[in-house]
Design goal:
The protein is mostly beta strands. It contains no helices and 22 strands. The strands form 4 sheets. Strands 2, 5, 9, 13, 14, 18, 19 and 22 form an 8-stranded parallel β-sheet that branches. Strands 1-4-8-12-17-21 form a 6-stranded parallel β-sheet, with no helix packed on it. A 5-stranded parallel β-sheet has the order 3-7-11-16-20, with no helix packed on it.
Length: 174
């Protein structure tokens, strides 16, 4: 489906049980994330997982995402690579702080936590493009990277016209 954000939203609680494959236009509105779970599992982000054909644009994320999820990004936790159309993220801004509290850094980014290829299925063996264009990160990313945390597998990743304004910090525990 296609969705357009009509107003700013505060205190979003994540429902990361479904894979998003639609179109989401944030319409330049702010989504404030206040997420401090005691056990986040594997995904923490406004969108837990996105896959082939997903298009996310014009979203501003603010607030804090803090926890111990394996894939953590303010906008998208995980891009699942499957055969099909590209995943496109355009004109998004992250001002949220992303703080990982586990010693293994895994896939942690300001906008996108990481890209995952499922090699156990034929779908995962296909090349799928992830395009991140004209995006900005100003949020602190503790234990990760500014725009995208990590890209694994053979799928193509294009990052163009993006700026990371924050120096990211390595994680220090204990």
């Amino acid at each position: 489906g296609s969705y357009v954000l009509k107003e700013d939203n505060y205190g979003i609680d994540f429902d990361n049980s479904n894979i998003f494959r639609g179109s989401f236009d944030g319409n330049g509105k702010i989504v404030t994330l206040d997420y401090y779970p005691s056990n986040t599992g594997t995904l923490a982000g406004l969108f837990g997982s996105v896959s082939a054909g997903a298009e996310i644009k014009n979203v501003i994320t603010a607030g804090t995402v803090e926890g111990d999820a394996q894939f953590t990004g303010a906008l998208v936790a995980s891009v699942i690579c499957q055969k099909g159309d590209a995943v496109k993220i355009d004109n998004c801004i992250n001002t949220a702080n992303v703080i990982i509290t586990r010693p293994e850094k895994d896939y942690i980014g300001g906008l996108v936590g990481g890209k995952y290829v499922d090699y156990s299925s034929d779908l995962g063996k296909q090349v799928m493009e992830l395009s991140i264009t004209n995006c900005v990160n100003t949020g602190q990313v503790l234990g990760g990277s500014g725009i995208i945390g990590d890209c694994m597998g053979s799928s193509e990743t294009i990052i163009s016209g993006c700026i990371n304004y924050r120096e990211n910090s390595p994680i220090t525990l204990g």
